[in-house]
Automatic annotation (TrEMBL):
GO terms for molecular function: dioxygenase activity. Belongs to the aspartyl/asparaginyl beta-hydroxylase family. The keyword Signal does not apply. Keywords: Dioxygenase, Oxidoreductase. Residues 68-222 form the Aspartyl/asparaginy/proline hydroxylase domain. This is Lipid A hydroxylase LpxO. InterPro entries: Asp/Arg/Pro-Hydrxlase (IPR007803), Asp/Asn_beta-hydroxylase (IPR051821), IPNS-like_sf (IPR027443), Lipid_A_LpxO-like (IPR047694). Gene3D superfamilies: B-lactam Antibiotic, Isopenicillin N Synthase, Chain. Coiled coil: none annotated.
Length: 299
């Protein structure tokens, strides 16, 4: 039975790897976080009502129209947060989902995150929060800033239960500031929105001289059957809420993000070890991987 389970996991990873035209190097994909979620994501993609394409037709999400209709209201609250310097990186390395993005200057302010509570969002952005509450398909939302010169490296998001919605608020309106999803490029424009499947390889860069601020949302993936939709909703409510991260003291921090703080501290020692002796680091890493595989086979 264990060989069947390991074999199934490997097949799921292959599905993730070969989905789309753009791929990560296979060894990187093998140990990527999206591979650990591969069995769940295979379920989401098999029973999805959304065609398998990087930029799906936005027509099924007519309920999102109030966001675009009120984009200037949303922008005013985002601009106010910028002035207050509230759109920022996590201060305590307690953002499991986006910690690697902060290294290149990306910043965020959470407006909603599944079932987690963010009182700071209600305090600073009451109108945007009210708009989001009126749209049940929006499971998470934030203001996301990408300063001039910042870049997000190619990656897949780990969870296929949602799709990504971007609404331009204060952007360069410049083709040098763009996101590329599975080889297809989109440049942000003020007041314009786009929906894409974040489980395809995507990356972004702001090659202009102007800051970029957008409304960034997770919208629930529509499923073919009610039971599949219920499973998706339950997984989002449990798994994704556990990855919640605070804007300020008083906001909820999920258990995954709390554990990530410990992992981050351990990672500092790992990086020091690698800098001290790269060969020893590679041998140790290979030994741990072989040992883990051996343990799985033995069990």
């Amino acid at each position: 039975m264990k060989y069947v389970a390991v074999g199934f996991l490997f097949l799921c990873i292959l599905h993730v790897h070969f989905r789309g035209k753009v791929r990560l190097p296979f060894m990187r994909q093998l140990f990527d976080h999206s591979s650990f979620m591969a069995p769940i994501n295979l379920f989401m993609q098999v029973f999805s009502r959304v065609p398998a394409q990087p930029f799906p037709d936005p027509e099924p999400w007519a309920d999102l129209a109030p966001l675009q209709q009120n984009w200037q209201v949303i922008r005013s609250e985002a601009v106010n947060l910028l002035a207050l310097q509230k759109i920022k990186a996590a201060e305590q390395n307690n953002d499991a989902g986006f910690n690697s993005f902060f290294k290149t200057g990306w910043k965020r302010f959470y407006l909603k995150w599944y079932a987690a509570g963010h009182p700071s969002a209600e305090r600073f952005c009451p109108q945007t929060v009210a708009l989001l509450r009126g749209i049940p398909s929006v499971k998470a939302a934030m203001f996301a800033e990408l300063p001039p010169g910042a870049k997000l490296n190619p990656h897949r998001d780990p969870y296929a239960g949602s799709l990504r919605y971007h609404l331009g608020l204060s952007t360069p309106n410049d083709d040098r500031c763009f996101i590329e999803v599975d080889g297809q490029r989109h440049s942000w424009r003020d007041g314009q929105s786009v929906i894409f499947d974040e489980t395809y390889i995507h990356w972004a860069v702001n090659g202009s001289e102007t800051n970029r601020v957008i409304l960034f949302c997770d919208i629930e993936r529509p499923m073919r059957f009610r039971w599949a939709q219920a499973i998706n909703r339950w997984l989002g409510r449990t798994l994704m809420t556990a990855a919640s991260s605070p804007n300020e003291t008083g906001d909820q921090t999920g258990v995954i993000s709390k554990l990530f703080t410990i992992s981050y501290v351990m990672g500092r020692y790992r990086r020091r070890y690698k800098e001290w002796n790269k060969t020893a680091y590679q041998v140790t890493k290979a030994g741990l991987i072989i040992g883990l595989v051996g343990l799985i086979v033995w069990l």
